Amino acid sequence: QVQLVESGGGLVQAGGSLRLSCAASTTIFSINFMGWYRQAPGKQRELVAAIISGGSTNYADSVKGRFTISRNIATNTVNLQMNSLKLEDTAVYYCNAVVFSRDTRSDYWGQGTQVTVSS
Question: CB count, 10 Å around CB of 97?
């Protein structure tokens, strides 16, 4: 079992920045994939950014150049730095962790944190 606790959401004006953090209850070396998803009202949940155990990262086209995902091994935390925020970035952001064990995939989710970008 992996527990994830998110923090850092809030209200920000367009063009501003926010930093989200996701603290894992276990060493992130044991987690194969960690990502940030978001879900806006009336829309499907979408992957925003991801980092795999080897350190490679991936981003949705809509956030490339503005968002940066990183990890802190010492604190078992994955962060999402969001710059140049746009109105369309408004959503609930969820941290996700995936652990592969033999033939089993286990997904874990945080409780979500609201990000609201205002004009």
Answer: 24
Model pLDDT for residues 92-110, shown as the tens digit of each residue: 999 999 999 888 999 999 9
pLDDT of residue 81: 98
**Token pair of 49 as six digits:** 């950014």
DSSP state of 88: G
What element of type H or E holds 97? strand 91-101
Integer CA distances (angstroms), 56 to 44, 59, 68, 108, 112, in order = 25, 11, 12, 20, 24
* Residues 119 and 13 sit within 8 Å (Cβ to Cβ): yes
